Amino acid sequence: MSKRIGLVSLGCAKNLVNSEQMLYLLDEAGFEITGETENVDAVIVNTCGFIESAKMEAIDTILELAQGKCQGKIGKIIVTGCLSQRYRDELLQEMPEIDAIVGVGSFDQIVSVVNRTLSHETVSAFSDIHHTNEEIGRVNTTSPAWAYIKIAEGCDNCCAYCVIPRIRGRFRSRPLENVVAEAERMANDGIKELIVVAQDITRYGKDLYGKSALPELLRRLCAIEGFVWIRLHYLYPDEITDELIDVIAENDKILKYLDIPLQHIDDHILKTMCRRGDSGQIRALLDRLRRRIPGLVLRTSLITGLPGEGEAEFEELCEFVREAKIQRTGVFAFSPEEGTPAYHMDFVDGETAQRRAELIMDIQSEIMDDYNASRIGTVEKVLVEGFDGIYYYGRSYAESPDIDGRILFRAEDAPINDFVTVRITDCEDGEPIGERIDDP
After folding, report:
1. Tell me: the pLDDT tens digits for 208-241?
2. According to the 3-state scheme, what is the secondary structure of the chain?
3. Where does the pLDDT of residue 334 fall: very low under 50, low under 70, confident under 90, or very high at 90 and above?
4. Is the pLDDT of residue 439 over 60?
5. Which of 61, 288, 344, 373 has its Cα between 20 and 30 A from that of 116?
6. Which of 31-40, 313-322, 327-336, 431-440 has the lowest mean pLDDT?
7. pLDDT by residue (tens digit) across 31-69?
């Protein structure tokens, strides 16, 4: 009888891709894989270790699994991903319930790790975080209709507050032909929305080809039959070229939705945090994008409480949020992380940073209300994702999965995992509500 292996994936979409690759390797090796965490021979926890809240979620998950192990519901616990890479020694010392720990450069060794762990070995597997993994298949765990494609690993940006380069290594692009081949397989499997991800997709190809190859990659992806939507996460502002804007504007498959992490607007803070560009360039970019891409929806992330943020700098950030009216904004209180330059700088206390984040979100909620109100009466193409007993629900180009909410709509019937046309008629509790208009 094959051994039963559960897997819990935490953190970002890029981490999820590694989880899906591990599932593929385990399935190919003959293991029975499951999303359950009881009555299994082993559970793999693919962790995030980026900021304090993510670390605590991972630790709480491991402790919960450790309780299941004590109750005899779980055989072995295997911890992989960013937390294990960052705290390899501490985890094994402080959490003896862990049977194996695997770094981010060694996820492709998961079959060997599981076999050794099931043979009652305590395993520690860590490879060079800068090496390039071989191409590995995946088990898609998101949806029959949409999936992520990771085009690069690691990061070279080295922002002063960010530990990702120390965890994930230098930026390594996948060869263009390999990305296109994987995308073609995904289209053949019925994927309709392809979400392009990396720590910084605008740098794609620079390490391999000496220049950004993202425009060419997008042209190649648009030529693949089967894809209806191609969504882009995450574009750094200083690398968005006129050629890239033209490709996005001219190709109907590329959604007019761009996720551009800005983090702050104050020039001194941007410079101290090693962010390239200044406030003037950021404002000019947003204006240029909106002029050249009609109907553009923007998403960004902002950090409150960064080193150097006093009341004046925070007020400048508030004014920028009011003025820029970016439709989607995630706001995070600064998390001082060991191993980063910002950890040793002067910054406001956590309570103040959190209060400031909440004040920004108050401003953002008004922007979202105005945006949702502006959509009433518009007609949207919606990818249907389910039915809750009253409404069907799904997403338009303006909603990225798991972060932006959904559209609710009434219909006699609607095909799950396919597209319908919806007229937005109202908005309740921040969610647009509509009706299907292509019903017979």
Report:
1. 999 999 999 999 999 999 999 999 999 999 999 9
2. CCCEEEEEECCCHHHHHHHHHHHHHHHHCCCEEECCCCCEEEEEEEECCCCHHHHHHHHHHHHHHHHHHHCCCEEEEEEEEHHHHHCHHHHHHHCCCCCEEECHHHHHHHHHHHHHHHCCCCEEECCCCCCCCCCCCCCCCCCCCEEEEECEECCCCCCCCCCHHHHHCCCEECCHHHHHHHHHHHHHCCCCEEEEECCCHHHCCHHHHCCCCHHHHHHHHHCCCCCCEEEEECCCHHHCCHHHHHHHHHCCCEEEEEECCCECCCHHHHHHCCCCCCHHHHHHHHHHHHHHCCCCEEEEEEEECCCCCCHHHHHHHHHHHHHHCCCEEEEEECCCCCCCHHHHCCCCCHHHHHHHHHHHHHHHHHHHHHHHHHHCCCEEEEEEEEECCCCEEEECCCCCCCCCCCEEEECCCCCCCCEEEEEEEEEECCEEEEEECCCC
3. very high
4. no
5. 61
6. 431-440
7. 999 988 999 999 999 999 888 888 899 999 999 999 999
Q: Of how many residues is the chain composed?
A: 440
Six-digit token string for 138: 């995946």
Structural tokens at position 341: 């330059």
